[in-house]
Amino acid sequence: MYRRHYLATGGTLLSAGLAGCFNTSDEEHARSAIDEIDEELGVDLWNREGGTFVVDFYTSGDRRTDIRVVGTAYADPVADGFDHDASGRAVDDGDLVYSFDIDLEWARAFTDDELSEDEYLDRIEATVENERAN
């Protein structure tokens, strides 16, 4: 209970600090993706590193599920004009479990029905790094 409160407070403070990093439309798009990811997995932190939208989320324990949640949550704002690459970092008990990248063009191709969901997720999964052994 305290952890959720702490994370919510930290997320609010971080979001306020990011106001200068994204323009208003970009921040709204980022918040849309974050809300969707948070609802299904939980979000630890999110920010912008260079031109990349980065989200640290709590892993479900199933990598493909995590990639589906983050990838589809990111694709929705891309369809509405969000134009930043993305990176997801799965965490568990504060430790990085793995990370992956999502190319903006893959998300556009997915939302334009040029890539199937499986093809889109396969491309994302091919970028997985830092995977720790169980």
Protein architecture, described:
This protein is α+β, with helices and mostly antiparallel strands. The chain has five helices and four strands, in the order ααββαββαα. The chain has a four-stranded mixed beta sheet. Helix 2 runs antiparallel to helix 3, helix 3 crosses helix 5 and helix 4 runs antiparallel to helix 5. The longest helix is centred in the first third of the chain and has 17 residues. It is globular. The two termini are 27 Å apart. 27% of the residues are buried. The N terminus is likely disordered.
SSE topology:
Layout: H1 2-18, H2 24-40, E1 43-49, E2 52-58, H3 63-79, E3 85-92, E4 95-102, H4 104-111, H5 117-125
Parallel strand pairs: 2-3
Antiparallel strand pairs: 1-2, 3-4
Helix pairs in contact: 2-3, 3-4, 3-5, 4-5
Mean pLDDT: 82
Strand order of the largest sheet: 1-2-3-4
Structural class: alpha+beta
* Shape field: globular
**Helix coverage percent of residues?**
40-55%
Strand content: 15-25%
Elements, N to C (H/E) = HHEEHEEHH
How big is the Rg? 14 Å
Q: Compute the number of strand runs.
A: 4
Largest β-sheet summary: 4 strands, mixed
Number of helices: 5
Distance between the termini: 27 Å
Q: Return residue spans where pLDDT drops below 50 for at least 5 consecutive residues.
A: 1-20
